[in-house]
Thiamine-monophosphate kinase
Amino acid sequence: MIHRPPASEEDFLNLIDRHFATAHPHMRLGRGDDCVRLACPQDMVLSTDLFLEDVHFRRSYFSPADIGHKALAVNISDIAGMGCRPLGFSLGLVIPDDPTLTTAFWNDLLGGMGALAHTHDIPLTGGDLSRGPYLGFSVTVWGTPGPTGRVLTRNTCRPGDAILACGPIGLARAGLFALEELGPEAIALVPHAIRAHLRPTPRVADGLALADIPGVHGAMDLSDGLARDLARLTGPGLGADLTLTESALHPDLIAHCTRTGQPALPFAVLGGEDYALIATAAPDSVPDILARIPQATRIGTVAATPGITVNGQPFDHTGFDHFATHE
Amino acid sequence: MIHRPPASEEDFLNLIDRHFATAHPHMRLGRGDDCVRLACPQDMVLSTDLFLEDVHFRRSYFSPADIGHKALAVNISDIAGMGCRPLGFSLGLVIPDDPTLTTAFWNDLLGGMGALAHTHDIPLTGGDLSRGPYLGFSVTVWGTPGPTGRVLTRNTCRPGDAILACGPIGLARAGLFALEELGPEAIALVPHAIRAHLRPTPRVADGLALADIPGVHGAMDLSDGLARDLARLTGPGLGADLTLTESALHPDLIAHCTRTGQPALPFAVLGGEDYALIATAAPDSVPDILARIPQATRIGTVAATPGITVNGQPFDHTGFDHFATHE
C-alpha cells in the first residue's frame, strides 16, 4: 500500500499524526476540531507563504523530504527575519490526483517537514487538505519575540548605518540555476549551492541574537535577493552602498559563475531565496555584533539616496518580479 | 486600465490597501514586513482553509464578490463553530496569468471579502501572492472566546443530549446542484438556495450565544453535511437519532427536490456547505437555548450507538469524501 496514494482523507490524517505530535504545550486543543485552541503570548508575529509546484519547487530535482523541509523553512525564516522564535504552524495542502504521490512519497515529505518542526519544537496545529491540479502548500507560521521583547522590522535605519548579512549571499541562486540547467546532476558540481536552494536553514538563533543587541536597528530575511530586498530593508528615500569581494562569496557560487561565464558579484547581488538575514545597525555596534554572531559579515552602509552601489559602481539590475506579466 | 490585470505585485498590493484597513487595534505592525505583529489574547483559536477554483467554487456562476465573500466566510465559520469571535486573518492568493482577471474583477472580489471583514471588524494582516495555474485562496483566521472564556468543541456530549441546529439544513446543497445543472439561470428558480451556496453567513453571534449557555455541551460548523458531520460532533461510539419533517426544510430545498424528483429529507441530511452550526446540549437546557437563539431548532437526540436514524429509519448514505479517489 506504501506504493499507492493514501486512499482517503482519514489515511492522510493518520500519516500526518505519524510525523507531527498531537500534543504540545502551545496547543490547549490539538488537531481535529474546527480550530486549534492555542495558549498564546500577548505579543505575536505571523506570516503566510505559498510554496507551489513549478513556481517555487520542482519535483524533478527536489526530493520529497526537500519539499517538506523548504515549504516550512521559508516560513520560519519570516519569523527569524523579525528577530523572533516560532511557536506553531498550520498547513493548507493541495494534492493532485497523481498515482506517483504514494504513501511512501508523503512519508518522506512529511518526514522532512516534521524533522524541521521538531528542530524548532513547533507543533502542526491543523489545516486543510484539498484536491487540486498540482501540488501546493500554504503555510501560516506564528511566533513571539525573545526575552527582550524586541521585534526587528524594516524602515528603521539611518544613513551611515552598517548593513550586515547572516548567511551566504547568492548561493541558493547558483544552486537554482545549476539545477534548472543540469537537473540532479548539478549536485556533484556545486553541492553547497544545491543544498542552499533545496534545504535553506531558517536563521532563528541569528535573528534572536540580532534582536538582543540594542545597536541593531532593523532586519529582514533575504528572499528576493539583495537587489530587491535592500530597498525594503532601508525603506523609501534611502539606498545601500555595498562593499563586496569575490573572496567573500561561497566557492560554489564562484564555480557556477566561472562555468557559465558570468561575473560573480552581480550574480550574488541579484541573489534570491537565500533566506540569509540582513540587518542594519549603528556603526559602533558592529564589533559587538560580529563578536556575538561570528557568521555575520558587514556588506555595506546605508546611503542617504535611493539605489544600490557595489564597490562604488551603480547597480542597475532590479531582479525578477515573480508576479509581473512578461509580455 | 481597470479592464486589464494588475500589472505588478505593487499594483495588486495597492488594490488590497484600498479594500482592507492598514491599521487596526489588533495589529501592532501592519502589512508589509516579513510578518504582521499582533496584540493577542492568551486564549486563541485558529483555522486554515483552502478555497480553490473548480474544487470549491466556479467562476461561471460565482460573481467576483461572491468568491471573495465565501473564501473568508467559510473560515470565519470555523471560528463560529468553536463559539468564538474572529480577530484577524491572513491570505495566500494564487493568481493565474489570465487576462479576464482584470483590475475590475479584483476590485469586486476584494470588495466582497472586505465587506465581510468589515462586518466582523477583522483586519487582513498580510499573506502571500503567487502566480499559479488557477485561482486559489488559502485563508488563515484566528479568534478568541467571548466574555465567558468558553470554547465549544466536539466529542463532549452524552447519549440523550439534544442536537440543535442554527441555520437551514441542506439548503446550500440545493443551491449547488441547481447551479451545476442550470448555471446562473438557477437564481430565478431557487434564489434562497443559491444565496446559501454563494454567500454563506458565518454564524458568529449564534456561536457566542451557544458558548454562553452552560447547558450546551459542544458545537461545530456544518460544512460536509449532517450525514458526515454528526459523527464528528458526537465523537466515536455515539450516534444521532434525527427527527426531521419536510415542513421544517426551506421551501427552496423542497422546490429543488420536487423538480428533480428526489425525496427531500435524505437530500437535506446529506447536505454540505451550509455553515449552519450544530450543537449538543442537556435536554433541560433546550427551552433556554430556543428562547435565547430563536433561529435554533432541535433536530434530534444523541444516541448511545453509532450511526444515524432519521425519523426512526437507519440512514446509510455517508455523503461525499472530497479527498478519496473514485475509481
Observations:
- Chain B has eleven helices and 13 strands.
- The two ends of chain B are 46 Å apart (CA to CA).
